[in-house]
Amino acid sequence: MSLNASASLYPRLLGDVGGTHARFAWGEDADGAVADIVSYKCAEQASLQEAIARYLAEQGKPRPRACAIGIANPIVGDTVRMTNHHWSFSIAQLKQSLGVQRLAVLNDFTALALSLPALRPEQLRQIGGGSAVAGEALAVLGAGTGLGVAGLLPVGVAGIASQGGNGSYAPISGEGGHASLAAIDEQEAAVVNCLRQRFGHASAERALSGPGLLNLYQAAAQLAGRPAPLTSPQALIAAAREQRDPDCLAALDLFFRFLGSFAGNLALTYGARGGVYVGGGVVPRLLPELAASRFRERFEAKGRFANYLAAVPTFVIDAAVSPALIGASRALDAAALG
């Protein structure tokens, strides 16, 4: 494609599909922001194609020229089968049924990573100290129905233009949420053992997600010899905020400790001196608890590399519009220019 090819890929349909919600938006032209954002519950739609058809019909939209979907799943080959939901589809068949010139299907956290340079200061909440180093790698993780992980690495002239225009980035996809959960002390080791006995493999996602928060609560109750009657993360958070359930309080404490340790590991793995960003649906709702937690302490608690991590900033993405929709649009532009 020519350098002007991306301009022909409008209007475009953009999607951010998780295990619980599917968000869609419309990009009318290259100069406009994403608009007409709608969120559907995945459980209420039989398929991704049905959800897209509903969006186009309800919003009165024409057939888009291009479509980009960030989805909570690894993208390997033509067939996509979601890890935390029952939707599955063929990328080639979806492109044909939509009748678009270009279809980009990418991991939802790859899309989120692509959006990071475009985030505005008011969309971020810094936790702890440190300052971002321009042109250095960035990392992003997020707890929702699952645990997403991605990176954004500087690559010179290729990739996506950085915020300041001084270089470019390429996204690095992965399934780091399924890496083994690491314990730092005896209490955490006991919790990891509970998760291992229950699931066979104690992945980070088993603790650092909405369902993971419940898993931590149930493990804390088990270790204390108490019942665990609560069945939703919302009820758990409410009980913790009312200071009326020690196991809910323990679950939040464990959640932030594990989150800090995992984020610190990610910062070291990517060399993310440009910052570590936390998104997803869970953490932005817990900003007061996060700020008062041991998250940052655990982020930096890496022995000889504590000073290295003390200089790395950590941010929570607190945006009204899903940034992954912006990242999905940027993926279309990168493909056009590539």
- Residue stretches low in confidence (pLDDT < 50, at least 5 long) are 161-166
The CATH first-level class of the largest domain comes to Alpha Beta
Give the overall average pLDDT: 91
N-to-C CA distance: 7 Å
Structural category is: alpha/beta
CATH topology heading of the largest domain? Hexokinase, domain 1
Q: From the 3D coordinates, which CATH architecture of the largest domain would you assign?
A: 3-Layer(aba) Sandwich
Largest sheet: 7 strands, mixed
How do the helices and strands follow one another from N- to C-terminus? EEEHEEEHEHEEEEEHHHHEHHHEH
Give the strand line-up of the largest sheet. 8-14-13-9-10-12-11
The number of distinct helices, counting runs of at least 4 residues, comes to 11
Q: Helicity range of the residues?
A: 25-40%
Rg from C-alpha positions? 20 Å
Count of DSSP strands: 14
Assembly category: single chain
Q: How much β-strand is present in the residues? A: 15-25%
Kindly give the count of domains. Answer: 2
Overall outline: globular
